[in-house]
Amino acid sequence: MTQQKANSQQAAFIEPIDEEPDLPGHEGALERKPEWQPRYPGSGRMKDKVAIVTGGDSGIGRATAVLFAREGASIAISYLEEHDDAAKTKELCEAEGSQVLTLAGDLGALGEAQKLVDATIDRFGRIDSVIQIAGEQHPDYDVTDITAEQLQRTFQSNIFSMFYVAQAARPHLKEGATIVNCSSVTMYQGAPILLDYSATKGAITAFTRSLSGNLVDDGIRVNAVAPGPIWTPLNPCGGMPEEEMDTWGTGVPMGRPGEPNEVAPAFLFLACEDSSYMSGQVLHPNGGSVVSG
């Protein structure tokens, strides 16, 4: 890459926007805490493995990191800036006997993914699973309210970051390695006030299926999880309008939002050998909503 090209890419980076200043939100500040606790004893399904978990400080990321730790993995947790949440997740994973690395940074910025991968290799010497959960959303009732900065920021955080991490990790992924991306039910059903977010989730699903085909001959499996409404800091801290929160998540057949520890097992299943005959697929922990694909 020429310096001119690198400078051009770096100049295109959009800093966090201030439309929802509480995002991405601190789990410790929530009055009702999300349920992250693993629901069953570990069985060694990730024993001696090393997993990167982006967005691993809170919500689904925390539940997934702790579950992987219980199953025997060493964990590299990437997060944006919620140092208190990241420290708590590190503590929880270490209590499961795991070795843990935490690294703050905006993965939508050129070079941050490489720093994450380099730090993981320096600490653990290998990468077996890449779990991509980090993302953001900004609600708007009208498509004309979505600014160019917001549009780019949402794509930058949600899908550009996945390309960057996959590119940085690829040289270290051997046969048997796995990548699991976080899509969303909004990719399948749409979300009228989350237009740009839903579009990124469609891109993530297409990326997952295409990357699966790209890597399957090398024995690397790529899948995704598409959660429905899950109680994490993202929505109550500005990811949904305040007036929507009283009924948020009640429209699914089960009549309630899900908990992070109801989603984490889907990431574990796709990361370990239990799903050895699956690639390019999407799991749907969404409260009973029937979707295609």
From TrEMBL:
<protein>
    <submittedName>
        <fullName>Short-chain dehydrogenase</fullName>
    </submittedName>
</protein>
<dbReference type="Pfam" id="PF13561">
    <property type="entry name" value="adh_short_C2"/>
</dbReference>
<dbReference type="InterPro" id="IPR002347">
    <property type="entry name" value="SDR_fam"/>
</dbReference>
<dbReference type="InterPro" id="IPR020904">
    <property type="entry name" value="Sc_DH/Rdtase_CS"/>
</dbReference>
<dbReference type="InterPro" id="IPR036291">
    <property type="entry name" value="NAD(P)-bd_dom_sf"/>
</dbReference>
<feature type="compositionally biased region" description="Polar residues">
    <location>
        <begin position="1"/>
        <end position="11"/>
    </location>
</feature>
<feature type="compositionally biased region" description="Basic and acidic residues">
    <location>
        <begin position="23"/>
        <end position="36"/>
    </location>
</feature>
<feature type="region of interest" description="Disordered">
    <location>
        <begin position="1"/>
        <end position="44"/>
    </location>
</feature>
<comment type="similarity">
    <text>Belongs to the short-chain dehydrogenases/reductases (SDR) family.</text>
</comment>
<keyword id="KW-0560">Oxidoreductase</keyword>
<dbReference type="GO" id="GO:0016614">
    <property type="term" value="F:oxidoreductase activity, acting on CH-OH group of donors"/>
</dbReference>
